[in-house]
Structure formats: structure tokens, C-alpha cells
Write a structure and sequence with these properties.
Elements (H helix, E strand, L loop, with lengths): L3 H8 L1 H21 L23 H5 L2 H14 L11 H23 L3 H26 L2 H27 L6 H20 L8 H17 L2 H7 L5 H22 L8 H4 L3
Helix pairs in contact: 1-2, 2-8, 4-5, 4-11, 5-6, 6-7, 6-8, 7-8, 9-11
């Protein structure tokens, strides 16, 4: 019996080869680079104001949208929305559960920023990253492929954080696996959206999600400058809000996207 991945390789050989090539190149580049340590300055944020007795108030409360939107996504998922392919409900559930965890974990981290609390921020992030990538695989390369890949992707994500925690405790901080888990899907997803047909309409929701996430990562690097020029809104707080906007794209897309009527028999066989 052919698997989704083998059928995809037959139908789109050079495209699948390109994805594997980029993955191999990223793995090789990180392996050759050597350990990447957690910067000492990572836990220093521009906005450290205490309000209502809550330290780092805005960096803490700006995580609330993650919790609310994650819960909204889980609630909407119970109604079997048209924008969720049959068989991908578990991937969506993992994604929205990860979003709730991001809100809680990030809030906990910002109450007391250090490497110990940062682990609880990063663990649910990897769940959301990997679940989202599984959703993209399911919509564009095959539902069975996504369902089989999800456990391995989640283990890889969680393992990358545990590896970093262990390396920290052993005195040789190494972020390489975590960076791979975070950024490789961001690199591969646009290629998948461009190179493989989707079983759902309105792929623009995913493009908007990616755009908001990329901008969120960008403003994070201008934390202090934005805090100074925006009258108290720091780059890190803005990052939280933009990233929550990308989560909103997933919640909204579940109701607004629809199964595509005709993709061709060859592609339908992939699912």
C-alpha cells in the first residue's frame, strides 16, 4: 500500500525533493555550526513596569489573547467547522492546546524571567509549531501523512526544549534543536503553500498567519527602540499581540475556509 509521502514523491518528485534537500541542508548547517548558547541578555526586557502588583505587567497580560483564542479554537473545533479536514482534528486540537499553553507558560515566564521559567514558555510553543506544520502537511500533502507525522513532530519539538534544558544544566547551553524546530517549519511552509495544491479554499488565511508571525519575530528585536518611540508599548509586548493575531487567523479560517470541490483525482489519492 502506498503512503501519502510515497504518492506525493511520485506526483511531485522535484518538489518533494526540494523540501527534503532544504531539511538536510538545515540539519547539516546547524551540525557544522556548533553549539548555540542562550544569550545572557535574553531575559532583559525594555518594559519592566509593575502595575497592580504584577511585575513586567504588559509582557504578562499581553499573553491573555493566546489563552482566549486557544480556548475559542478548541470550542469551535467541537462543532466540526468546514475549514478542518476530516482526520486533522487532532492536529488542530494540539495546535490550540499549545496556544493555551503558550499564554500560560509565557505569562509565568514574564513574571520571573529566567531559564527555568523559560522552559515552560518554550515547551507549548513547540507543540503549536509542530501541530501547525502537521496541519499544513495534511492540507497540502495528505491527511494520513499528517496524522502519522504528528506524534513524531511533537516529540521532536518537546525533545528540542528538553535538550536545551539539559545542556543548560550541564553548563553547555545549546539551542540548535530548538532553533531548528522553530524556524525550519517557517521556511518550509511557504514552499509547501506555493508548490502543492490545498484541499481547502482561501489559503490566504495561512499566508496572513505567516506574515503576522514573521513581523512579530521582527519587532521582538526592537524591543527597547519601540518602547521608547511608541510611548510605552515595547517590542516584546507587540510581538505577543501580533503572534496572537496569527492565532486568530487559524480560529477564523476554520469557519471561513471550505473544502475545494475539484483538485483532480491524482491529488485526492494523496489523502
Amino acid at each position: 500500500m502506498h503512503t501519502d509521502s510515497s504518492l506525493a514523491a511520485v506526483r511531485f518528485p522535484w518538489r518533494v525533493g526540494l523540501l527534503w534537500g532544504i531539511t538536510a541542508a538545515a540539519l547539516a548547517a546547524l551540525a557544522l555550526h556548533g553549539p548555540i548558547a542562550q544569550p545572557v541578555s535574553y531575559h532583559a526586557f525594555a518594559d519592566e513596569r509593575t502595575l497592580l502588583g504584577i511585575p513586567n505587567f504588559w509582557n504578562v497580560v499581553s499573553n491573555l489573547p493566546f489563552v482566549l483564542l486557544g480556548l475559542a479554537g478548541l470550542w469551535r473545533l467541537r462543532r466540526r467547522p468546514p475549514g478542518v479536514l476530516p482526520g486533522l482534528a487532532a492536529c488542530h486540537a494540539a495546535f490550540f492546546a499549545g496556544a493555551v499553553g503558550i499564554g500560560l507558560g509565557s505569562a509565568w515566564y514574564h513574571l520571573r524571567p529566567d531559564s527555568a521559567t523559560l522552559a515552560w514558555d518554550r515547551l507549548p510553543m513547540t507543540v503549536a509549531f509542530m501541530a501547525f506544520f502537521a496541519i499544513v502537511l495534511g492540507e497540502h500533502l495528505g491527511v494520513r501523512l499528517a496524522r502519522r507525522a504528528l506524534p513524531a513532530l511533537l516529540l521532536a519539538g518537546l525533545g528540542s526544549v528538553l535538550y536545551w534544558v539539559l545542556s543548560e544544566r550541564l553548563g553547555g547551553s545549546d539551542l540548535r534543536p530548538y532553533l531548528l524546530v522553530q524556524f525550519l517549519p517557517v521556511l518550509l511552509t511557504p514552499l509547501i503553500l506555493l508548490l502543492f495544491p490545498s484541499r481547502l479554499t482561501r489559503v490566504g488565511w495561512l499566508w496572513l498567519l505567516l506574515a503576522l508571525y514573521v513581523v512579530a519575530k521582527g519587532v521582538e528585536h526592537f524591543d527597547a527602540a519601540l518602547y521608547e518611540h511608541l510611548g510605552g508599548l515595547s517590542g516584546h509586548t507587540l510581538k505577543h499581540l501580533l503572534a496572537a493575531g496569527s492565532l486568530w487567523c487559524m480560529v477564523a479560517g476554520m469557519s471561513r475556509r471550505r473544502p475545494r470541490a475539484a483538485l483532480g483525482e491524482a491529488h485526492l489519492k494523496l489523502t
